[in-house]
Amino acid sequence: MRRVSVFGATGSIGQQTLDLVSRAPESYDVVALTGGRNIARLAADARRLDAEIAVTADAALLGDLRAALRGSGVEASAGAAALEEAATRPADWVMSAIVGAAGLAPGLKALEQGAALALANKESLVTAGPLLMETAKRHGAQVLPVDSEHSAIFQALVGEDMAAVEKVIITASGGAFRDWPLEKLAEASVAEASAHPNWDMGQRITIDSASMFNKALELIETHEYFGVSPDMIEVLVHPQSYIHALVGFRDGALMAHLGAPDMRHAIGYALHYPERAELPVERLDLARVGQLDFASPDPARYPALELAHEVMRRGGLSGAVFNAAKDAALDAFIAGQIGFTQMADVVAEVMNRLLPDDGLINATMNLDNVARAGQVSETEARASISRRN
Ligand code: NDP
């Protein structure tokens, strides 16, 4: 029996993970399931899968969760600290499918106890990629990519030498507004942005696909996870979403990963890694598909991509600033406070304000000055103590 935990179990990725786990209940011992506000779903799944503990991120909902779990024998807990505690419970495999930067802390705890971390929560890599990868290394734990593009790259690299990689290409459907006239984009509504042409996903990531902020996060994710330099990573618009990513090698070969747009493929690959298990996903019939189309992304339509390149160039904490600004802009769009195209303007503005061109140099010089001043006063203090003695 493999001990598994699912963080963000009530969401789109979480539910698809539970779908796979439920198909072979004899193989899994469910440790922790976590959710946010959807207490009914969290409690029903925790009962059905006989989880050890169910955790809601919302401390105010602990009473509701307890009531929903009464008599089940499943422990109930709530709040950010409870999420981290649940991640310290021994598990062989942990799905990180919380949305947003809130996924980072439980993911780090899971790695610290040596669990394999199936990473859907791309924000962990965007906000703190070096910390996450370093933590995994230090504890001998593995991070398994679940984003379909990164799972595809991971699979294309099996048995390959990274030194032979020339470029990595992640594909993008182009989102809901791929074929809209540019001048109409400013008027796009939340409902229109929430309808993805190919993938069935949570609302936030669907809107992020329309703006390509999702692809921007994935560019940074590629850079952080695989350690490839920004100039080796490209985005290719591929409306059918059958090719998820391609890896180009120095001998001119391009390895592509193809599959139906169904996240259970990438989740299942991570769940069974390094084996390939049978999965309940549609098989691609290329003769029926007939044609695959490709185009370069239009920078005017998708300004988020250039912002991602800026983040990769700057490094440091710029990913955290970018992600938080993107989330705030998305909140404002969903709330009807700003228009669709203003999201990129808001993010660019926040980045310019918090990360001025000379910001890192200034910050470095400040720290340098502070450290030197601290050292001098400490040396002086010691000298005066020894004089006094
Ligand atoms: P959903 O919005 O469908 O689900 C998010 C999950 O996180 C839910 O369980 C939600 O709880 C929980 N949650 C929300 N806020 C918090 C918080 N502050 N603290 C703890 N838990 C919280 O998202 P998705 O499943 O679509 O996406 C999850 C992650 O996977 C994201 O990082 C996304 O970018 C990534 N991803 C998603 C893909 C997809 O196809 N959906 C594809 C590739 C990557 P509740 O619903 O109960 O409030």
> Structurally, how many domains make up the residues?
3
User: Can you write the helix and strand succession as a string?
Assistant: EHEHEHEHEHEHEHEHHHEEEHHHHHH
Q: Strand sequence of the main sheet, in spatial order?
A: 4-3-2-1-5-6-7
| Rg from alpha-carbon coordinates | 23 Å
Query: Which percent bin holds the helix content?
Result: 40-55%
State the shape.
Answer: globular
Give every kind of bound small molecule, once each: NADPH dihydro-nicotinamide-adenine-dinucleotide phosphate
Strand content: 5-15%
Question: Can you walk through the features of this model?
Answer:
By secondary structure, the protein is α/β, with parallel strands linked by helices. Helix content is 47%, strand content 15%. The chain has three domains: 2-146, Rossmann fold (3-Layer(aba) Sandwich); 150-349, no CATH class; 356-388, no CATH class. It has 16 helices and eleven strands. It has a seven-stranded parallel sheet, with helices on both faces. Helix 2 runs parallel beside helix 3 and helix 6 (122-138) runs parallel beside helix 10 (213-226). Bound molecules: NADPH dihydro-nicotinamide-adenine-dinucleotide phosphate.
Question: What keywords describe this structure?
Answer:
single chain; 389 residues; alpha/beta; Rossmann fold; seven-stranded parallel beta sheet; four-stranded mixed beta sheet; 16 helices; binds NADPH dihydro-nicotinamide-adenine-dinucleotide phosphate
Tell me briefly what this model is.
By secondary structure, this protein is an alpha/beta fold. 47% of the residues lie in helices and 15% in strands. It contains 16 helices and 11 strands.
